[in-house]
Amino acid sequence: MSVTRRDAMRYASLAMGLATTAFTLDNLKAFSYASPKALLNMLMGTAVPPANAAGPRGLVKYVQQLDRSGASDLVPDFEPRLQWLNSAPLSFTRELRGKVVLLDFWTYCCINCMHVLPDLAALEKKYEGQPVVVVGVHSAKFDNEKDLDAIRNAVLRYDILHPVVNDGDMLMWRGLGVSSWPTLALVAPTGRLIAMVAGEGNRQLFDGLIAASLEYYGAKGALSDAPIPLALERSKDQRVLASPLRFPGKLASDLANGRLFLSDSNNHRIVVTDLQGNFLAQIGGAGDGLVDGSFEEAQFNRPQGVAYDPSRNLLFVADTENHALRQVDLVGETVTTVAGDGRKGQDYKGGARGREQPLNSPWDVELTADRAAVMVAMAGQHQIWRFDLDTGRCVAFSGSGYERNQNGRFASDTAYAQPSALSLAPGGSEMYVADSESSALRALNLQTGGSRLITGGDANFAENLFKFGDRDGSTSRALLQHPLGALSLADGTVLVADSYNHKIKLVDPTRGSVVTLAGTGSAGVRDGPGAQAQLSEPAGLAHGPDGTVFIADTNNSLIRCLHLPSASSPTALLSTLDLSSLPPPPASSSSASSQRRRLRRRQKADEQVVEEPPVAAATGTLHLRLSIPDDYHFTAGASSKFSVELPEAGSGGAAVTVTPQSGDLTLSGSLALASLDFTQEGSPDSSGSAVVQVHCKVYYCQQDDLCLYKAVNFKVPFSPSAAAEARDVQLVFDITPAPPGKALVPTA
What's the burial of 118, exposed, middle or buried (CB within 10 Å: 0-12/13-18/19+)? Predict the structure, then answer.
């Protein structure tokens, strides 16, 4: 059968029509954010100072010309029905009349919008007490972001102190013709538009425009000093105030040693607990900053991802708002910056060492299978980077830097959209990526830098970042909504924290299926069977003991525990970890030291207590002797240590002195040894005994580099004695490794 030219043209037209229809249907949600005004702005341009208006005088002249010409747009007023946070409803005809108003069009998922927030805070501080008002116009991308409580949590999470309006129906967005996040618009005291600019990095421009507007309209007497009454959300939220955590982001576990690492993001600290939630240590927390040093001295700025290296006893931290990668030495109890310098970078290639290599909002970290490198989800510039542990170089590994859901064979033809979670796949050749802005789960090839789509997102149009929803089923049809967590399981399946659907989902790449394990689809806090359980924007996942999974339930400021379905228990169960032993963050680094001294007087959750018989001697020596099994060795480069805790003055009993009071244990074969001299003063008829505690921590490894530690507390009571002869006291403990995932100390 021959095909005529007319038939060929007809078929081509039909194919083009079908393709256009498919494209339109696939991108229908994206088109819903467009408006006639936005199209007009694209054609005609928006209000922005011309190049010749540079400098203070030029900007004043620009503002003057706009005002006198009356050509600038009159900004539409806020609809009375809109909901407000941090203030009562505001209007350009009332409260905002006579004010220079900076509108921030944002959506809280957007990393670029997060980058603008420090600029807004700086401008608010600079113009404090002047007739300048910043208003956040929250224009949601995702369905979940239209919810007022969800926006309230974002306001709390990012410490936003200016009024925020929930423009869920995009009324102001369409009225001004905004077309992208973030967009800043400056409004004159008369209610007319002065300038509107999309993107981040425009602080200097708007600083100059605000100053010029204050000068010009101040000279005209058009400014109002009437204050804007604020009612900050942070003063109202009892749930957040009651929790020891503030919006925890990510988790990592050390099952062999029974430790859980929590990024307590808004408290700017890393918290270490045992697997039952009992407090072990805190790193940082005395405010935000980029400070290296001891656990008490160190500072972070909203850290997110954490990854534990069991062979080196190191913890790597994605210090997101410091734009840095930090290394925590859990033996030496120190923090070091290994990449980034606190400033947001714009380098899309990398290759420098240490602080010389700028980073851009690293969100998660994960070790490669050989532990030679740390992979970094660089959310701020939509790439995956690689930090080499031997050379200290940090380099872009995958992704062009364009914000897309683009899968290719190689790094150069791959693009991401705010990658927010990494998890090494079984076999070690791939790493799962929760690509949040494309609402997709993807797999990164660790050899080529290419990627493939597992589920979610738009498989056909890389630029479409609006294909999201809540749908289980086959991986080709399932939909996610801004996933922030991923965790690879040993059987080849993947758990996904489907954050904006408030669910935990199980993805089986082999069978091609997606199923919800926990969550109803509505934000809440409820334990129980998975189908009835509730979470609120879960973000971090980590392996727990006996096949359980820990969840950073971010907006609830809780850590949850998911018991996965099994043959004996086919229903997933959700419970909440008891964190009542966690202390609040210290007020300052100096108070951190005193807080730590107080905490040391508590019984540590990871210490095994050995009660010794009373010692009745005036002088003598305490001989420490701790042994490890024959098929283990002491950890190279890690000092096993001891420290002595003497009874507080006035606690009763004799006065005891011990020297030295701290130091390294001497390692000999399978033994860790030390000798401590003691003296006690007191008459034989003195009442009571003084209890000396000798804390020991031994670091040791199995031959396959599984590294462990054991904390032992010898409690030695001293009874007053007239005996003059010296006495040797043996403090002996044989270390037996606990089964992986079990608690290393007896539980009641």
Answer: middle
Domain ranges of the chain: 1-28, 32-235, 286-579, 607-734
- Identify each DSSP E strand in 499-581 by its residue range: 503-508, 513-518, 528-529, 538-543, 548-553, 558-563, 573-576
> Measured between alpha carbons, how far is 467 from 458 in angstroms, rounded to an integer?
6
Q: Fill in the DSSP letter of residue 131.
A: S
Query: Could you tell me if 211 and 177 are in contact, meaning their C-beta atoms sit under 8 angstroms apart?
Result: no
Reduced to 3 states, what is the DSSP secondary structure of residue 195? Answer: strand
- In 167-258, at which residue ranges do the beta strands (DSSP E only) sit? 183-187, 193-198, 230-231, 251-254
Q: 135-173 pLDDT, tens per residue?
A: 999 999 999 999 999 999 999 999 999 999 999 999 999
Secondary structure of residue 9 in the 3-state scheme: helix
Q: What is the value of pTM for the model shown?
A: 0.91
* Three-class SS of 643-707: EEECCCCCCCCCEEEEECCEEECEEECCEEEEEEEEEEECCCCCCCCEEEEEEEEEEEEECCCCE
Neighbours of 631 (CB within 10 A): 9
Give the E-state strand segments of 124-224 in sequence order. Answer: 132-138, 164-166, 183-187, 193-198
Highest average pLDDT, of 438-452, 651-665, 706-720, comes from: 438-452
Bridge partner residues of 134 (DSSP): 102
Q: What pLDDT is recorded for position 235? A: 81
Fold of 32-235: Glutaredoxin (3.40.30)
Say if residue 1's pLDDT is above 60. no
The yes-or-no verdict on residue 737 having pLDDT over 80 is yes
Residues with Cβ within 8 Å of 560's Cβ and at least 6 positions away in sequence, in order, are 527, 535, 538, 550, 551, 553, 574, 575, 576, 577
What three-state secondary structure class fits 437? helix
Phi/psi at 68 (5° precision): -70, -35
The pLDDT assigned to 466 comes to: 96
Between 592 and 54, the more confident residue is: 54
77 with 92: CB under 8 angstroms? yes
Element spanning 397, H or E: strand 393-398
Give the whole-angstrom CA distance, residue 431 versus residue 498.
18
CA atoms of 474 and 3, how far apart (whole Å):
39
What tokens does 466 get? 């609006």
Give the 3-state secondary structure of residue 72. Answer: coil
CA 733 to chain centre: 39
Q: How does residue 46 score in pLDDT terms, banded at 50, 70 and 90?
A: confident
Residue 102's H or E segment, with its range, is strand 100-106
Q: How confident is the model at residue 508 (pLDDT cuts 50, 70, 90)?
A: very high
Q: Give yes or no for a contact between 527 and 533, defined as CB atoms under 8 angstroms apart.
A: yes
For 607-734, the fitting CATH number among 2.40.50, 3.40.1000, 2.40.128, 2.60.40 is 2.60.40
- The CATH superfamily label for domain 286-579 reads TolB, C-terminal domain (2.120.10.30)
Partner residues linked to 419 by β-bridges? 435
Query: Distances in Å between the alpha carbon of 373 and those of 20, 160, 385, 389, 706?
Result: 44, 36, 10, 5, 18
Range list of β-strands (E), 208-301: 230-231, 251-254, 259-264, 269-274, 279-284, 293-294
- Give CA–CA dist 579/19, Å, rounded: 54
CA distance 243 to 545: 24
CB burial string 88-106: b at 16+ within 10 A, e below: eebebeebbebbbbbbbbb
Query: Could you report the per-residue pLDDT of 239-276, keeping only the tens digit for each?
Result: 666 789 999 999 999 999 999 999 999 999 999 999 99
Sheet (strand 548-553) strand order:
528-529, 573-576, 558-563, 548-553, 538-543
Confirm if 182 and 110 have CB atoms less than 8 A apart: yes
